[in-house]
Predict the 3D structure of the following.
Amino acid sequence: MKKKKAKKPTGPILKPVRLPVKKKLKVEREEGPRGWFLPVAEETYARLAPRGAPAPPPPTALPESGESFTSTHVPGAGESVLATVGQSVWLDRLREYKQRKSTAALTPLAGPPLAAAPSIPGGRNWLPLGPNVVVDGQTVGSQPVAGRVSGVAIAPGAQIVYVASAAGGVFRSDDGGTTWRSLMDGFDLDPTSFASASLACGAIAIDPSDPDRVYVGTGEGDTYRLFDSRVVNALPAYRGIGPIRTDDGGDTWFTEPTASGSPTLAGGAFFALALDPGDRESVLAATTQGLYQRVAGTGGTHEWVRRRNEVHSSVVVASSGGTTRFFAAQWGKGVFHSPDGATWNSTGTGFPTTNVGRIALAVQPNRVSRVYAYVAGADGALLGVYRLDSISGSWKKLTSVPPVLPGEQGDYNLTIAVDPLDENVIYLGGDYADVDPFPGSVWRCAVESSSSGFRVAQSRSIGTHAHADVHVLVHSPGDPDELWCGGDGGLFLNRDPRGTGEFASQNDGLSCLCCNFIGQHPTDPSILFTGLQDNGTARSSHGAVWNHVNYGDGGYCLVNWANPNQVLVFANGTVYRSTSGGTTHEAWSARWEFPWATMTQPIVGTPFDSESPQDAKFVAVGAGRQVFVSRDFAASWPMTIVLPYQSDRVFALAFASTARLFIGTTSGKVFVANRTGNNWSLTRLDDASSGPLGLVGLITDVAVDWSDEALDSVYITFGGMGDPRRVWRFDGAAWEDRSGTGGPNSLLDVEHNALVVDPTAPQNLYVGEDIGVWHSPDGGANWAPLQNGLPDAPVFDLQLHPSQRLLRAATYGRGVYELALEP
């Protein structure tokens, strides 16, 4: 087939800006969680459609926020780039995956032994490489950090502590938070069990009389508003399967059903759980589906019934003198109370009625009439803090509240706690403190009466030694001198919050970091780099404790395979370069600022070739509709490739050689660029006349087929939703689906993020999906899960070590894992 040359580019051509070299660099905080989460959400729910299929009509109604959707990845596009998916889509895909995993354990594919996926210990396992913790993190005092924490439950005495992480499951400490162990690693013992599979958690509650009885609400409520404001007809939050419970301290987990007649909680998300002090079987849940209560079912079982409609963002409980009172907050509406969780009435008078967004509540455990409400506006900014001293009284707004939400992220970060012994001391948690390096926003406020009601007489910022984006503040039971803080950087403890105490990291072993991409040392497999969501870039060297080496939101990492002292990383629109191995913060210089179109723009190098070390200096960076190419490892960028279509954004790159580069875009186009000198000629491949690419959608990865000596052949993967045909091969003339032959040997209809073709045995393909890693021993004809020892977390990056037979996977929520392949 004669390849068709791409059209001549039109529109302005932007160039990377060379930045002054600084000895120590701090990445400015940009858009907060929206900056990293919204593009990922769009990638997950991008529409996949057969080539030539018409775009769907625009939606008839906007989401609750009233905002229309504007695509991050396809300029000028709106709702048409998104798939229409039901609330049960994650549960359906997880069920299918579990069935496939169980089958693969019993009937392995033909091919190498690693094609099987044993579901019990034995055989070759994925091994965790960490980070179990990242030291020298993004806080004042450089505290060690972990991943996103959404809930904390503490037993009396504060020795047994549980943490619900937003993307890594539940962890337990038996030594007061000094060390941790995961409770969600039973997935291979029972492949059909769902309870230990959903690693996305939003809330957790413990029975104070039995620290082994724990309830968890799966699905991350804190991300609800991001979905609601941008992604219509998609899940309201990340990967919930409903409520789960353990009665033995996390050794075994059970899913719990939703009552008949109530909307399912699977596919929804939790903000908070409140356990009835007088009845451990009665639990209230504030969720995206409404306010739910756990009640007795038939035959000694329990189920969850909806008590109130609409999104509820908080629920708390107090009990004294035989009286129990629950308080619940409905997003955008107000506060309600109940004596039993079944019947509810509006609480107090004078609560704000306009511009109300998310509401967080706090009570003292033994004060049934006094409640605080911490309220964000519809735009995420602080609306106010309110106090009510009697159920029939009037809400009073506190004056002189400190700047707890400078980033106006109250839809994502909103938490409040009351001192257990002093009703006039409260703690507010928000997004970030406006000091370098933008650490946690936690404020202690002393409240006193004033002529208008109440005011904050004194306030003090106490959260700068914690990480930014605070999701939970909770005291050890009855102890005003132990305040726990959970956020995007893990868990922190302040042992003198009423005085001059600072938060200290409690993150050793809390291995729930959200890894985006990895870079590998070419000869020493123990040295890796990973870009982390809201935790910068971390580097490992011989252990599970990694070092924080660069700030911001970490993206791609690339190590020069001929000179490993040269390292590149991407963060917040800038490429950083180290010539000393990237071992410290001071080792980096901000070399170039690129047109910033996606949160984690691709940086790629050439294939490993020990006989041509000079080739290692070639680097490409995708930035919007342009690709910048360097031949001196990012010291300069003399070559630019411009895509001819205004709607394209580069999302995937792969060098076949220093003279050939394949490009995949967010709108489903594939190009090959061939170099002569410093000039590149661009040819479009996806519309090949002999056999075009059968789908249109976001292309997440490109991998060269090394079985083709002419380097004309390439594989690509698709993200998004809508079709299980996720892997395609181009043979230089036409495209062919390589997603399996159908039925039990095919891939799932979920986002595929990464693709590896084994150079040693190129019939072996590996893909990283939003549900695990999959292997094909026959060029994509058959696929099976490759899952012995790998948690059920999304796999965002997958790489084969350049000189060792080691497959590495970067998971979003459980760190980096490694599998040894056959020689």
